[in-house]
Every structure is written in structure tokens, then in C-alpha cells.
Write a structure and sequence with these properties.
By secondary structure, this protein is mainly beta. The protein has a single domain (about 10-270), classed as Neuraminidase, CATH 2.120.10. The chain is built from no helices and 26 strands. The chain has strands at about 10-15, 15-20, 25-30, 40, 50-55, 60, 75-80, 85-90, 95, 100, 105-115, 115-125, 130-135, 145-150, 155, 160, 165, 170, 180, 195, 200-205, 215-220, 225-230, 245, 250-255, 265-270. Strands 9, 10, 11, 12 and 13 form a five-stranded antiparallel β-sheet that branches. A four-stranded antiparallel β-sheet has the order 1-2-3-4, with no helix packed on it. A four-stranded antiparallel β-sheet has the order 5-6-7-8, with no helix packed on it. Strand 1 (about 10-15) and strand 2 (about 15-20) form a beta hairpin.
């Protein structure tokens, strides 16, 4: 199951892989075989720090930086990667936030909130009620974390606070409280890759405090106890800040800031327990 990431991102939809890059070329590409990529143009404007996820059968992109002082409040949705619908969200403009689909609802959390600095707020979109703030200060102010739905809970993983990158893990309880889990043994990181495979939650890649890419991968089956997974997962030739997203039985990783294809970028599929 794949539910959340920060662009550049790879999203699976209808058996195809969609590569989105709001941070550089603001472009979208599609592949049905992970070999041939078809560019779908630049359907939305440049917006670094936007968040992307798959929600209820649609690609979703939200927020992002418009200028040095202005961020987007926009939510873009598409079912084909070519035609996008724009709506204004019920939360303050932000970038480098987390977004994920969870049990039919769409969550937006934290990030660099316009005029307010780092945010610890949580907003949820329900088709019946629209956008609403779940609670303020639900988690410490953060940005560049990843969120994912796992074992019927929403999880918030890694990111950075005012003190720098963190290795914290939070789980959202059924009453909306965010419960800190035991500190993870993996190195603090921004923009970690997160995905599930079987009963396991995987966390890896990302950037350290100096902005250097990390190449490890860890897994947990309860959100508390972690162990190293097969690795390293960053092959030679993979550029920094790759796009990533679970695809089939593995993690699809596309290398570099020139994404998405058809620009020449390596494409890798990491398969857990492949032996």
C-alpha cells in the first residue's frame, strides 16, 4: 500500500507508474512497463515543497512554495495525470508538509506554514464535511516528514524540527491523539521513503542534516521494534533526492532532481526479501 510522500514522487495508479516533479520541472510522466516513459506535459506550475499522494483513486498534489514569501493553498487532483482539477483548501498556505490518505480521509500535517514558521497542526478532508482542523499542536512543529497508513493507524515519520532532522515516529490513535513511539534506531532524516510490504513498515533513504542522501532501509512489524532490511538500497549512479514510491512488490526509485522521465535518469525497483 502506498499512501504518502513528498515530491518528486512516484505514484501507482491503474497499473501504471506516474512520476511527478513539482520541485523542478513541474512535470508529469507515465510508464506502463517502467522502461518507456511518456511525458504528460506541465499541467501545474512550479511549486517546490508540495506534497503528493494517492487518494481514493486519484493523484493528489497539495501546497508548495509559490515565491520566497508566498505558498500555495491549492489542492490538485487527477485520475489520469493529464487533466487536473484545482480547489482551494481549508488550511493556511504551506510547503514541505506531510500528506497521506487514511481510511477514506485525506490528511495534511505540519510543514512550513506561511507567516507562522513550522506547524504542528493537522487537517483532515472528508467528502461529506470538507476540510476541518483536527487539532492544533497535535505534534511538535515539523516539516519534511513522511506519513503513511499502516495497521489501521496513520503514522508520521522522520522530518525536521527547529533543532534539525529527527528519527521520531508518531502514531495517530483512534481518538485523534498522536502517540510518540520509542525512538527509532535509524539515523535522523528528512524526506524518508516509507512503504508497506506484507505486515512490515519500511523506512529508509532520505537526507541527513547536511543534505546528503542516506542509503539504508529499516523495517518494523509493530511500529516499535526496528531492524535493518536488505541494503544498501542506493545503487551506484542514483542521484541525490530520488523520487520514490511503492510499486507492485517493491519500492520504485528514480534518480535525481531532473525527474521525471523522459530525462535520462536511472530507474530501480527494490524488492524486500528478494534474497
Amino acid at each position: 500500500m502506498w499512501t504518502g510522500s513528498a515530491p518528486p514522487a512516484v505514484l501507482p495508479l491503474g497499473g501504471a507508474a506516474f512520476a511527478l516533479n513539482a520541485s523542478a520541472q513541474a512535470s508529469v510522466a507515465r510508464s506502463d512497463d517502467l522502461v518507456t516513459w511518456t511525458g504528460l506535459g506541465t499541467p501545474f506550475s512550479y511549486r517546490p515543497g508540495a506534497a503528493a499522494c494517492l487518494h481514493e483513486g486519484a493523484l493528489v498534489v497539495s501546497g508548495g512554495r509559490r515565491t520566497a514569501r508566498l505558498d500555495y493553498q491549492e489542492v490538485l487532483t487527477s485520475t489520469d495525470g493529464f487533466t487536473w482539477t484545482s480547489t482551494q483548501a481549508g488550511w493556511r498556505q504551506r510547503a514541505f508538509h506531510a500528506m497521506a490518505s487514511h481510511l477514506g480521509d485525506l490528511f495534511v500535517m505540519g510543514g512550513e506554514v506561511q507567516d507562522l514558521g513550522l506547524g504542528g497542526d493537522v487537517y483532515v478532508y472528508n467528502p461529506q464535511y470538507g476540510w476541518g482542523q483536527e487539532r492544533a499542536g497535535a505534534v511538535p512543529p515539523f516539516a519534511e516528514a513522511s506519513a503513511i497508513s499502516y495497521q489501521n493507524h496513520l503514522w508520521l515519520i522522520g522530518g525536521r524540527t527547529v533543532a534539525g532532522p529527527v528519527n521520531t515516529v508518531y502514531m495517530r490513535a483512534s481518538n485523534g491523539d498522536w502517540l510518540p513511539r520509542a525512538a527509532a534506531p535509524w539515523a535522523p532524516r528528512r524526506r524518508p521513503a516509507v512503504f508497506t510490504f506484507g505486515d512490515a513498515l519500511f523506512v529508509g533513504l532520505g537526507l541527513d542534516g547536511a543534505g546528503q542522501p542516506l542509503d539504508d532501509m529499516w523495517l518494523t512489524e509493530d511500529g516499535q521494534t526496528w531492524r535493518p532490511a536488505d541494503g544498501p538500497v542506493r545503487p551506484a549512479g542514483l542521484r541525490s533526492q530520488p523520487a520514490w514510491g511503492p510499486f507492485g512488490d517493491g519500492l520504485l526509485v528514480l534518480g535525481g532532481s531532473t525527474l521525471p522521465p523522459p530525462s535520462p535518469s536511472p530507474v530501480y525497483l527494490y524488492r524486500p526479501f528478494a534474497g
